[in-house]
Amino acid sequence: MPGSKHTGFEQDLYYIPEIAIKLGLTEAAVRGHIQRRSGAIPPFIRLGRRVAVRRLDYERWLGAEEPVPTRRRRKGRPRL
């Protein structure tokens, strides 16, 4: 399609801003999950410096079991 910014392959991808909107997170939160590889976002791929999620992987991830929320460890000395 003339003037279209996305090729057929790119239409099958979600980038960080789209992932953030779909998951109800901020872009910074999505980047944090990517950096920690926490499993709180769908499997992603790197395209150079860009990060994307395949549409099919997103749909499969949504259909899978609910992810178990991870418990954050507290910093510092353990308290009794």
Provide a quick synopsis of the model.
The protein is α+β, with helices and mostly antiparallel strands. The protein has helices at residues 16-23, 27-36, 55-63, and strands spanning 13-15, 45-47, 50-54.
What does this structure look like?
The protein contains three helices and three strands; from the N terminus they run E-H-H-E-E-H. Strands 1-3-2 form a three-stranded antiparallel beta sheet. The mean pLDDT is 80. It has a domain at 10-63: Arc Repressor Mutant, subunit A, CATH 1.10.10. By secondary structure, it is an alpha+beta fold.
| Total count of strands | 3
Unreliable stretches: none
| CATH architecture title of the domain at 10-63 | Orthogonal Bundle
Distance between the termini: 64 Å
Task: Please give the CATH class of the domain at 10-63.
Answer: Mainly Alpha
What's the arrangement of secondary structure elements?
Blueprint (H helix, E strand, L loop, with lengths): L12 E3 H8 L3 H10 L8 E3 L2 E5 H9 L17
Antiparallel strand pairs: 1-3, 2-3
Helix pairs in contact: 1-2
What labels describe this entry?
elongated, alpha+beta, 3-stranded antiparallel sheet, 80 residues
